[in-house]
Design brief:
single chain, 8-stranded mixed beta sheet, 4-stranded antiparallel beta sheet, Multidrug efflux transporter AcrB transmembrane fold, 17 strands, 20% strand, 52% helix, Alpha-Beta Plaits, elongated, Gyrase A, domain 2, 3 domains, 14 helices, alpha+beta
Length: 475
C-alpha cells in the first residue's frame, strides 16, 4: 500500500509539473480575452427584420471573416435580433470593423464615362444630365433617372439603372464614374486571394464559378477593349480595361492596393456577402491598459483568496493542511498547462469571467479536502486509529465528493450550453476545475494522506501532527 501510494503521488506531481514546464518551454501561455488584453466589441442590428436562418447565416459568414483575420477565440453570437462581435487582441480595430460588417455587394458594371471628382453630392438620389460635367456624352445621361448611390446605401434598387459612383482611395474621392446596369455580381465568384503581379503591385486574383465563367466571358466579348468597373458596396474599386475575350474562369482585380487592402478585399470576397445589411448599434474599444488593470485585479483577488485558504487550512488541519496546499499547487500547475495548450491549439481565451470561475473552483476543491478530513476525524473519534481509518474514510468521503462535484459540473455544463458570451467562459473553467478535482482527490489526496498516516513523524508531531489537526490522541 505504501509503495503504490508513493508511486501514485509522484506520478501525479510529475505529470502536473511536467506539463507545466513543458508549456513554459514551448512558450505557450493562456490566451487572454477581450476584457483582459483589450480589443473590440461591436453590436450590429439587421437593417430590416430577418428570420433566424438568415441571422445564423450572417453569424457564420462573420465568423469566417474574423477567423481569416487571425483573431484568437472571437466571440460572435446572437442576442435577440442583434449580433454581438467581440475581437480580443485585435491590433487594428478600425480595419477589422470594416471587414467584419461589410456587406460586400460586388457588382460588375460597364463604364459609360468618367466625370470630375468634385461633383457635389446631389440633394436627391437622381441626377439630370445638366447636373453632370460635360465630359459625359448625352447618350450616357439622357435619362432623368440617373441614380446616385453613396457607399452607405443599398444598391438593390439600382441594379438595373445607370448610376454615378465614386472611386475612393484612402477616404479621398479620386474620380467618379457614370456606370451602366449591373452585368454580374459577386455570386459568380468562387474564391479570391491577394497576391503580387509581375510588377510588384498588389492584386486580388479570383476564380469564377461554373456558371460565372461563361457569363464573364460573354461580358468580355461584348466589352472587349472597354472599361468594366468593379464596384464594392457603392465604391468603384477598379475600372480595368477588358483585354481578352476569354478568361477561362480566372481573373484579377487591380488597383492602388496596399497589402492590407488587398488582403481585406480578398477576405470579404472569399467568405461571401452578408445576406442582410447591418447597422452598427454600439462600438466599444477596450485598451490594453484597461485590460491589464482588469487582469491585475482578478489575479490579486485570486491570490488573496488562495493565501487565506492556505493559512486557514494549515492552522486548522496542521499537517493535513499541507496536503491542501500541495494539492492546490499541483492542480494549479495542471490547469495552467491545459489552459495554455488549448489556448495555443484551439484559441481558447481566458477572460475575467473565466478567472472568476477558477477562483470559485478553489472553494470547490477545498470542500473536497474538508469532506475527507472531517470524515476521517469522525472515524478516529469512534476509536479507530488514523492508519486504519484513512482508506475506509476516503471511500465514504469520495462518494460525497463525486456527488457534489457532479452537481457542480452539471450546473457548469448547462450554463455552457445555454448561455452566451462571458458566462460560457465562467462555466467552462469551473467545469474543467471540477473534473480535475475528482481526479486529484483519488490520485493525489488519498495516497498522500495514507503516506502521512503511516509516518509517526507526521502523525505524532506535537504542534504540526495529523492527530493534532484531527483533534484526537489515538494514532
Amino acid at each position: 500500500m505504501k509503495r503504490s501510494s508513493l508511486i501514485m503521488v509522484l506520478a501525479t506531481v510529475v505529470i502536473s509539473l511536467g506539463a507545466f514546464f513543458a508549456v513554459l518551454a514551448l512558450n505557450y501561455k493562456p490566451v487572454l480575452g477581450l476584457d483582459l488584453q483589450g480589443g473590440l466589441s461591436v453590436v450590429y442590428a439587421p437593417a430590416h427584420p430577418v428570420n433566424q436562418a438568415t441571422l445564423n447565416e450572417t453569424i457564420s459568414i462573420i465568423s469566417n471573416r474574423v477567423n481569416g483575420l487571425g483573431v484568437a477565440e472571437p466571440n460572435i453570437s446572437a442576442q435577440g435580433h442583434n449580433i454581438v462581435v467581440q475581437l480580443p487582441g485585435v491590433k487594428d480595430p478600425q480595419a477589422a470593423l470594416k471587414v467584419v460588417g461589410q456587406t460586400a455587394t460586388l457588382r460588375f458594371r460597364p463604364v459609360l464615362c468618367s466625370t470630375t471628382a468634385y461633383v457635389a453630392p446631389p440633394k436627391s438620389l437622381h441626377l439630370t444630365a445638366a447636373e453632370l460635367q460635360p465630359t459625359c456624352p448625352t447618350s450616357a445621361t439622357n435619362s432623368n433617372l440617373l441614380s446616385y448611390v453613396p457607399s452607405t446605401t443599398s444598391q438593390s434598387d439600382t441594379a438595373t439603372a445607370n448610376v454615378l459612383l465614386p472611386h475612393i482611395t484612402n477616404n479621398v474621392v479620386t474620380a467618379r464614374y457614370v456606370l451602366g446596369p449591373t452585368l454580374m455580381t459577386g455570386a459568380s465568384l468562387k474564391t479570391a486571394v491577394a497576391g503580387l503581379d509581375s510588377t510588384g503591385n498588389w492584386i486580388v486574383q479570383f476564380t469564377l464559378t461554373s456558371t460565372g465563367s461563361p457569363l464573364f466571358d460573354s461580358i468580355a466579348k461584348q466589352y472587349y477593349q472597354k472599361n468594366i468597373a468593379i464596384v464594392l458596396d457603392g465604391n468603384v474599386i477598379s475600372a480595368p480595361t477588358i483585354n481578352s475575350t476569354s478568361f477561362g474562369g480566372h481573373g484579377q482585380i487591380s488597383g492602388a492596393f496596399n497589402q492590407s487592402q488587398a488582403d481585406n478585399l480578398a477576405l470579404v470576397l472569399r467568405y461571401g456577402a452578408l445576406p442582410v445589411q447591418l447597422v452598427q448599434q454600439t462600438v466599444q474599444t477596450i485598451s490594453p491598459t484597461l485590460g491589464a488593470a482588469s487582469l491585475k485585479a482578478g489575479v490579486f483577488a485570486g491570490l488573496i483568496g488562495l493565501i487565506a485558504v492556505m493559512i486557514y487550512t494549515i492552522l486548522y488541519y496542521r499537517a493535513l493542511g499541507v496536503v491542501v496546499v500541495t494539492g492546490l499547487a499541483t492542480t494549479a500547475a495542471l490547469l495552467w498547462a491545459i489552459i495554455s495548450y488549448i489556448g495555443h491549439s484551439s484559441g481558447l481565451t481566458l477572460d475575467l469571467s473565466g478567472v472568476t470561475g477558477l477562483i470559485v473552483s478553489i472553494g470547490v476543491t477545498v470542500d473536497s479536502y474538508i469532506v475527507f478530513f472531517e470524515r476521517l476525524k469522525d472515524d478516529v473519534r469512534d476509536g479507530r486509529s488514523i492508519r486504519a481509518s484513512i482508506d475506509r474514510s476516503f471511500k465514504k468521503a469520495f462518494r460525497t465528493i463525486v456527488a457534489a462535484d457532479l452537481v457542480s459540473f452539471i450546473g457548469a455544463l448547462l450554463l455552457y450550453l445555454l448561455s452566451i458570451g462571458p458566462v460560457r467562459g465562467f462555466a467552462f473553467f469551473l467545469g474543467l476545475s471540477t473534473i480535475l478535482d475528482v481526479i486529484t482527490s483519488y490520485t493525489f489526496t488519498r495516497p498522500l494522506v495514507i503516506l502521512l498516516g503511516r509516518s509517526e513523524t507526521f502523525t505524532r508531531a506535537r504542534w504540526f501532527g495529523v492527530a493534532r489537526g484531527l483533534a484526537v490522541s489515538n494514532v
